[in-house]
Design a protein that fits this description.
The complex is a heterodimer of chains A (388) and B (207). Chain A has ten helices and twelve strands. Chain A is an alpha/beta fold. In chain A, helix 3 packs antiparallel against helix 4 and helix 4 packs across helix 6. The radius of gyration of chain A is 21 Å and the shape is globular. Chain A starts with 18 loop residues before the first strand and ends with a helix. The two termini of chain B are 27 Å apart. Classes of the chains: A alpha/beta (388), B alpha/beta (207). Chains A and B meet through helix 9, strand 12 and helix 10 of A and helix 3 and strand 3 of B.
């Protein structure tokens, strides 16, 4: 166990940095691409206490640009954890009862091995020499983290968006290690539209002259403009048309009226600019390329002749799937497809669609019906597993 | 918690540790009762998303779906018992629903309101209006019950689906259940509703 090293300077140096495990050549990480990471690091942060039977562990997987700081201050931004409404003492994921592990992903930039880290073979940052990773690679790395922590079985694995994809992958890669799974606002594969939006983001980064073919660290630059544009485009997909309209409408920045120029006239423009620049301060551009690629490659049915149900055959895991009515990034029908596939192999599945006009990001927000569902489901799983 | 009388009667028919699918499970009251009293491995299918959410918040494995369209998703003979309580009259295609139930489960339990009850017969004769009762309390133009039938009609349907009626119970106005002979004219006139336990012979016996 070691102190994770972050790519960005800490603005909250007193915040808990979590932990990281450094795996050596004895625990090399074999990747779907055929390449191997001989030495690698995975960062994580835990909350609550593991019980004696080691039966109360809940793994929380994060979304595209999330991190392991689920329920505590982010050391780089100083902002509260991304799921503090969901996870904590007395919260739906109750850290007084459960041992919660917030895990980072391989390829990320919050203390885990990724393209911004130094390649031990060359002494230079990996850049594009870092191998491409998949959702399955991320989950394989997490399974090795659990081995390291001495946890054989998870009471639950859960997450939203890309976190939900990891939760699903867990039930396919390691069904015997997962008692319950809660994939929220996700899909069993990336659609053409999902891939299309990601490609816009990647092209924005790679078109920035400061990207330097991915070797920007060596050039002492950063493709900030490209990364900000990528974030702006992506951010729109996380919201909904009614939510944007309600929040901004056509409200102008300046009461004097429109400027007949290209500086931001509308409030929605400066909101997006802010989202873009704030993102650049905490995220690595190459990591963004790698992680978006991992989600594009995600297709759970691909190894099962394209039949999703076959991926779950024989799986004893209890599933609870949650979607949101206004989520057009991973819409209800994609979530329902998973529920139907589970039904077709007689797996145990609950499916809840929550009415919200806040789009995909609803899973991060205060949605009481989601909290009720999560609490009820986890209570039922805990009681059948004998977790107090 | 006291169950609706027809649900209590159905619950009494379910063996311990059975695998049960409750179609139109509402807020999950029967499933919860079965899982706490008989350790049943229960699943639910419910049309109303609001009721699904309430069930899942109580820890029950329920999904939103429509009996008319979604039963085809389930594999054959995976459940010991499939339940459809006071819902068949609200489906678009009762025959197809019954056939799916017989395919999915080794036993099917179906309860229904009896449109042959004397009060309904008399009501139509006396008033000339579509009859309304406590259980069927809607105007003809806004009722969800689009496929009402009598006990005799239901018995005909079961037969045409190749189902064997194992047992049948009449639901009395007091809320009791009484074994009945499905083909006799008495219950068709006197029972407010009925519960049938069905199976298809070639699927073998034994819950």
């Amino acid at each position: 166990m070691s102190d994770p090293i972050f790519l960005r300077p800490l603005t909250a140096p007193d915040a808990d940095r979590g932990e990281a495990v450094e795996f050596g050549p004895d625990n090399a990480l074999e990747l779907d691409s055929g390449r191997t990471l001989k030495t690698w690091t995975l960062a994580y942060k835990t909350y609550g206490k593991l019980n004696e039977a080691r039966s109360n562990a809940i793994l929380i997987c994060h979304a595209l640009t999330g991190d392991q700081f689920v329920a505590s201050a982010h050391p780089v931004t100083g902002k509260p954890g991304w799921w503090e409404t969901m996870v904590g003492p007395g919260k739906p994921v109750d850290t007084d009862r459960f041992f919660v592990i917030g895990t980072n992903v391989i390829g990320g930039c919050m203390g885990s091995s990724g393209p911004a880290e130094v390649n031990p073979a060359t002494g230079h940052p990996y850049g594009l020499d870092f191998p491409l990773v998949t959702i399955r690679d991320m989950v394989r790395a997490q399974a090795m983290l659990l081995d390291h922590l001495g946890i054989k079985k998870l009471m639950c694995v859960m997450g939203g968006s890309m976190g939900g994809m990891q939760a699903l992958q867990w039930t396919v890669s390691y069904p015997e290690r997962v008692v319950a799974a809660m994939p929220i606002a996700c899909a069993a594969r990336h659609s053409a539209q999902n891939i299309a939006f990601h490609e816009v983001g990647r092209q924005a980064i790679m078109a920035d002259p400061d990207w330097h073919g991915g070797a920007y660290q060596e050039h002492g630059t950063q493709p900030s403009k490209g990364l900000a544009v990528a974030r702006m485009a992506a951010h729109i997909t996380y919201l909904s048309e009614p939510a944007l309209q309600r929040k901004f409408g056509r409200t102008l920045q300046n009461r004097g009226g429109i400027s007949f120029a290209f500086a931001p006239d509308f409030q929605v423009e400066s909101y997006l600019h802010h989202q873009g620049t704030a993102f650049v301060d905490r995220f690595d551009a190459n990591s963004y390329l790698y992680i978006t690629r991992a989600t594009d490659y995600f297709d759970l049915a691909a190894d099962f002749g394209g039949v999703l149900a076959e991926a779950f055959r024989g799986c004893k895991t209890r599933f609870c799937i949650i979607s949101f009515t206004s989520d057009w990034l991973y819409p209800t029908f994609e979530n329902k497809r998973i529920a139907h596939a589970l039904n077709a192999v007689a797996a145990s599945v609950s499916f809840v669609e929550i009415e919200s006009d806040r789009g995909h990001d609803a899973f991060l927000l205060n949605e009481p019906e989601m909290f009720g569902t999560v609490r009820g489901f986890l209570n039922a799983v805990a009681s059948s597993e004998g977790v107090a | 918690m006291s169950l609706r009388p027809d649900l209590a009667a159905i619950a009494a028919m379910i063996p311990e540790n059975a695998r049960v699918l409750d179609i139109g499970c509402g807020d999950g009251v029967l499933l919860e009762h079965l899982s706490s009293t008989k350790h049943v491995d229960g699943r639910g299918l419910e049309l109303s998303q609001h009721k699904v959410n309430a069930s899942v918040a109580r820890g029950l494995p329920v999904i939103q779906g429509d009996a008319d369209t979604d039963l085809g998703e389930y594999p054959s003979q995976v459940f010991d018992v499939v339940i459809l309580s006071l819902t068949i009259q609200a489906t678009r295609n009762p025959k197809a629903v019954m056939e799916q139930m017989l395919r999915i489960g080794r036993r099917s339990i179906i309860s229904l309101p009896n449109f042959g009850h004397w009060r309904i017969r008399l009501g139509l004769l006396a008033t000339g209006h579509m009859p309304r009762t406590k259980t069927l309390d809607n105007e003809w133009y806004d009722t969800p019950n689009i496929h009402l039938c009598t006990i005799a009609d239901f018995v005909d349907l079961a037969e045409s689906c190749g189902a064997v009626i194992e047992t049948a119970y009449a639901l009395t106005p007091a809320g009791d259940t009484k074994p009945m002979s499905p083909r006799s004219w008495g219950p068709n006139l006197m029972a407010e509703g009925a519960i049938f336990v069905l199976r298809v012979d070639n699927h073998g016996a034994g819950i």
